[in-house]
Specification:
Layout lengths: L1 E3 L3 H12 L3 E4 L2 E3 L1 E2 L1 H14 L6 E3 L24 E2 L1
Antiparallel strand pairs: 1-5, 2-3, 4-6
């Protein structure tokens, strides 16, 4: 998930909310391995956490045989039957 949130207050609150789902991999990017139920919950929460006319959030869902190649200092991703966002 990547985001561009204009307001410092909204951006900080959004990042804290996302920490409940996954981990930060860049300043405005999070990765999470979550169940389908949590994924749906996340999608429902995002619109209420942003300003539709000013902010942007992109959620990339990777299913099946998705692949992430890591370089440098990165957290390890465990292989589980979950949705990677």
């Amino acid at each position: 998930m990547i985001y561009d949130i204009v307001s410092n207050k909204r951006r900080t609150a959004f990042a804290k909310k996302m920490e409940g789902y996954g981990f930060r991999v860049q300043k405005s990017a999070f990765e999470a391995m979550i169940s389908e139920k949590l994924y749906r919950q996340l999608l429902e929460e995002i619109p209420g956490a942003i300003h539709k006319g000013e902010d942007s959030v992109r959620v990339y869902r990777i299913i099946g045989q998705g692949e992430v190649t890591l370089f440098g200092a990165s957290e390890t991703i465990k292989d589980e039957e979950v949705i990677i966002i």
